[in-house]
Amino acid sequence: MKIGVFGTSMVGQAISGKLAELGHDVMVGTRDVAATQAKTEPHPYGFPAFSVWQKEHANVKLGTFADAAKHGEVLFNATNGTGSLAALKLAGESNLNGKLLVDIANPLDFSHGNPPSLSVSNTDSLGEQIQRAYPNVNVVKTLNTVTAFLMVNPGLVANADHTMFVCGNDVAAKAQVTEWLKDWFGWKDVIDLGDITSARGTEMYLPIWLRLWGALGTGMFNVKIVK
Amino acid sequence: MKIGVFGTSMVGQAISGKLAELGHDVMVGTRDVAATQAKTEPHPYGFPAFSVWQKEHANVKLGTFADAAKHGEVLFNATNGTGSLAALKLAGESNLNGKLLVDIANPLDFSHGNPPSLSVSNTDSLGEQIQRAYPNVNVVKTLNTVTAFLMVNPGLVANADHTMFVCGNDVAAKAQVTEWLKDWFGWKDVIDLGDITSARGTEMYLPIWLRLWGALGTGMFNVKIVK
What does residue A9 show for φ and ψ, rounded to 5 degrees? Predict the structure, then answer.
């Protein structure tokens, strides 16, 4: 399948690398292709610059946000949440319309230091903002509740015996994404939380997730819903 | 132990009933004792009026917020979160000072309909507001992430193989509360998330918790942290 992935950092790399490994035709979108190619220093968080990463993932293409949006039959938003709406604007509404957009972004605002706050929360969410801005796109919020490596390989923790969530207005789109989460990435337990307003819940989960990371000393964890 | 519990509704009933059953000397605090005693209709959510409940829990005393605060060597805040600061003001700072206050409340604001929003969130929390208002009280935030019955009986779900959190500035107070959670209620896995600012995380978890309740069709669930 032709897939467009917006974002070149850790989440974009994890998603596009895994999708390419599965045989999909993946193009990653960035704001400025030349700038992305020129950057070679690792990110302060430790993951490689996209240009360095791409050398070992030569089958993953790089283009502008608009190129990736045109390329993809299905799209993944793996940009920083505070920049997602700007990235999607550059992608272009006509290139997005009619497509399924898997939104993985979190609106984490680090501008006031650590811990980050959310740039939108409580009575709204990034998922809803995107859905409102692009009413002809099927937005499905998912994967934003775990660290990048776990998104595409949940078996790295507890034999994948833990839970992922999907939120979105379109029932068929959520069912499709749930199938991909299971077939492509190996998720076993996927809970449909409801319409796109339930993205508030998964985005507002980030503060406890970040504290758990600190308490556990690792990002390699998740919640399992037990009842 | 002499324990004061603020709040007469479902959480206050669950906590005070269990503590009395364990042999503690429990007084529940309310704003207006006569009004609480006069009310006999069940709450719209289905739990009994305090006066009805108390007939089967005659060893649980009822008093004003100030009476309960004076009575308790240890205090539990089981009021509605949007009314907690007002309740604590009525309890009286001098009656609270030097004591450990277990804060279970969530600042859920139903005034704009369902789903509720949080009346404080993102860059602050109810736990922090209480700690700031009463600097000589040791506030420990816990139990606010599960339904009332599970708080005091986690074994009702998955043999208690799931997770509770504690947040607070005082390490010894958190250790004490953790011991009580285990010895009194049967919690097995308690994670210390950090200082009282981590209460933001557990309060902002409420939106996903409410959506999970809807998706699962029951409040009898919890998260287990797996790594």
Answer: -90, -155
| DSSP secondary structure of chain B | -EEEEE--SHHHHHHHHHHHHTT-EEEEEES-HHHHHH--SPPTTSPPPHHHHHHT-TTSEEEEHHHHHHH-SEEEE-S-GGGHHHHHHHH-HHHHTTSEEEE----EE-TT-SS-EESS-SS--HHHHHHHH-TTSEEEEESTTS-HHHHT-GGGTGGG-SEEEEEES-HHHHHHHHHHIIIII---EEEEEESGGGHHHHHHTHHHHHHHHHHHT-S--EEEEE-
- Look up the ipTM and state it: 0.96
For residue range A19-43, list pLDDT tens digits in order. Answer: 999 999 999 999 999 999 999 999 9
User: Is the pTM here over 0.95, yes or no?
Assistant: yes
CB pairs under 8 A between A and B: 120
Residues from chain B that touch A119, judged by Cβ atoms under 8 A, are none
The pLDDT tens digits for B124-165 are 999 999 999 999 999 999 999 999 999 999 999 999 999 999
Q: Which residue among A123, A158, A194 sits closest to B226, beta carbon to beta carbon?
A: A158
Residue of B nearest to A227 (CA): B221
In chain A, the residue whose alpha carbon lies closest to the alpha carbon of B208 is A201
Assign B45 a pLDDT band (cuts: 50, 70, 90): confident
Under an 8 A CB cutoff, do B204 and A157 touch? no
Task: Give B-chain residues touching A122 at CB under 8 angstroms.
Answer: 117-118, 121-122, 207
pLDDT digits (tens, 9 = 90+) for B182-217: 999 999 999 999 999 999 999 999 999 999 999 999
In angstroms, the Cα distances linking B194 to A109, A145, A214, B185 are 20, 20, 8, 22
Contact call for A157 and B226, based on CB within 8 A: yes
CATH number among 1.10.3720.10, 3.30.470.20, 3.40.50.970, 3.40.50.720, domain A2-216: 3.40.50.720
Whole-angstrom distance, CA of residue A75 vs CA of residue A100 = 6
